[in-house]
Design goal:
4-stranded antiparallel sheet; globular
Length: 470
């Protein structure tokens, strides 16, 4: 019995000794300890609660600011996980990079708005008077239609518009330029089309015959956009401003319908001008510039009234609300902004797209707008509610431009996937898919009577679409 007890004690001692002799710092243990330490550091990190700041930190780390289906809290935890793998010095550099003194913050706030010339105040008063009259007429018309037409009649009108859309077919195609054609627009009377070309020569065409009416010469670089004056071929004299165009060298030129040479050249921007837009009154012109600003010009005086910053990257488009009181700007910084032209203040920040926003447009009702992005989607925004009302998975490639039917019944989008799509403004569902271009479609427009669509493409052509029985 004593021998058995001695052997047992040896076995226990041997077992204890063997257990103590196991390597205390194996690779597995090191990994576990490192993971515990990382989690401890992650819990001690103080992260910003503002989602915009979280996105800025992710951008500083060269990480996507938003993943598909990611919520705000998920994004914050992703930032926490990334920072927990960095050294304390690197974490401090990221988290405290935006610390400023109160004086610096006030200076940065002041630089959003620049002191304008004496004519800016007069211009704001003019736009306020114009927009108030237009808004009053629009609201009176809406109330009258609400009283005079019932729900069934409105539904029938919408069905008629959608039925017309279903009959749209390719009507004709025309070579517009010797280089890609990035832009095309109908005249206010709907019987003419103006195109921009990278050869630097904007051109006016007859819609039905496809014949060239006027080809302008004056730009020294690619012409990216050409627009008709709101009164062209309707109320505007042929000898005054009827067309405006911009180019990649920063030039903006005004033209009439009598001669091919410039009527007036506005002050050079010093950087590429991507798009221009006439104010509904016809007196003012806005330009979107690649220096991260957009500008407002008085075309009667030929002077710059406003230099507006707010975007962190190039501004891609500027468009006006139908009343003329608001402006929508979009940029390569993935954001859009809505500006009150009567005060100059930004009243809404459009945050939601994950890639560059290329185009924007207001709907005729005055309180909805839609933006098109390189993330292949379009977003509908409600200015009254200050939020995104709907997101459309529009195309399989970047959406280059969006246009709204003047009657407010449908929307047309153009895309780099070589096609156009028509959408209902009631349910935001697709109504028609138009295919005919062989290269990316860079621009689209709808005629004032809503019966024609024109598209401009990289293949140097513009195409006209209308009802099959035209």
């Amino acid at each position: 019995e004593n021998g058995v007890a001695v052997d047992a004690s040896k076995a226990i001692l041997t077992a204890e000794t063997m257990e103590m002799d196991m390597p205390a710092h194996s690779e597995h243990n090191k990994q576990m300890l490192a993971e515990f330490e990382r989690r401890r550091r992650a819990r001690t990190l103080t992260l910003p609660t503002d989602d915009v700041q979280v996105k800025l930190k992710l951008r500083m780390l060269n990480q996507p600011i938003c993943l598909f289906g990611e919520e705000i809290l998920d994004r914050r935890e992703r930032l926490r996980a990334l920072l927990s793998n960095m050294s304390e010095e690197e974490v401090a550099a990221i988290l405290h990079s935006d610390r400023m003194t109160q004086e610096q913050q006030e200076q940065d706030t002041e630089t959003w708005y620049y002191r304008g010339p004496a004519g800016l105040k007069e211009a704001r008063v003019c736009m306020a008077d114009y927009s108030l009259r237009r808004a009053k007429l629009r609201l009176e018309k809406s109330r009258r239609e609400a009283l005079e037409t019932n729900q069934q009649e409105r539904a029938l009108a919408r069905q008629e518009a959608h039925k017309l859309v279903q009959t749209f077919q390719l009507h004709g195609s025309q070579v517009a330029d010797s280089r890609p054609c990035p832009f095309a627009e109908f005249s206010p009377d709907g019987k003419h089309v103006v195109t921009a070309g990278w050869s630097g020569q904007p051109t006016v065409w007859e819609r039905d015959s496809g014949e060239k009416v006027m080809r302008y010469a004056g730009h020294t670089a690619q012409c990216g956009c050409a627009r008709f004056h709101p009164g062209a071929f309707v109320s505007q004299s042929r000898t005054t401003v009827n067309v405006a165009s911009c180019s990649h060298d920063g030039g903006v030129i005004l033209w009439n319908l009598e001669k091919e040479t410039p009527l007036l050249t506005l002050e050079n921007h010093g950087d590429r001008v991507n798009r221009i837009s006439f104010h509904p009154s016809g007196r003012f012109l806005a330009s979107a510039c690649f220096d991260a600003s957009w500008r407002l010009f008085d075309i009667e005086a030929g002077e710059e009234l406003q230099y507006q910053t707010g975007h962190s990257k190039s501004v891609t488009d500027v468009s006006f609300q139908g009343d003329g009181s608001l402006a929508l700007s979009t940029g390569l910084d993935c954001y859009g902004r809505i500006w009150d032209l009567r005060t100059g203040r930004c009243i809404m920040f459009l945050d939601g797209h994950t890639r560059e926003v290329l185009s924007g447009e207001f709907l005729p009702n005055g309180y909805l707008c839609i933006t098109a992005s390189a993330d292949n989607t379009c977003r509908v925004w409600d200015v009254r509610m200050r939020r995104c009302a709907y997101t459309m998975a529009a195309h399989t490639n970047a959406v280059s431009r969006v246009r709204v039917d003047p009657g407010g019944q449908y929307v047309v989008t153009s895309s780099f996937d070589c096609s156009l799509k028509i959408w209902s403004t009631e349910s935001w569902q697709p109504l028609r898919h138009l295919q005919g271009h062989e290269t990316k479609v860079m621009g689209v427009d709808i005629s004032p009577d809503s019966k024609w669509i024109v598209s401009a493409a990289f293949d140097r052509t513009f195409k006209l679409w209308t009802a099959a029985d035209y």
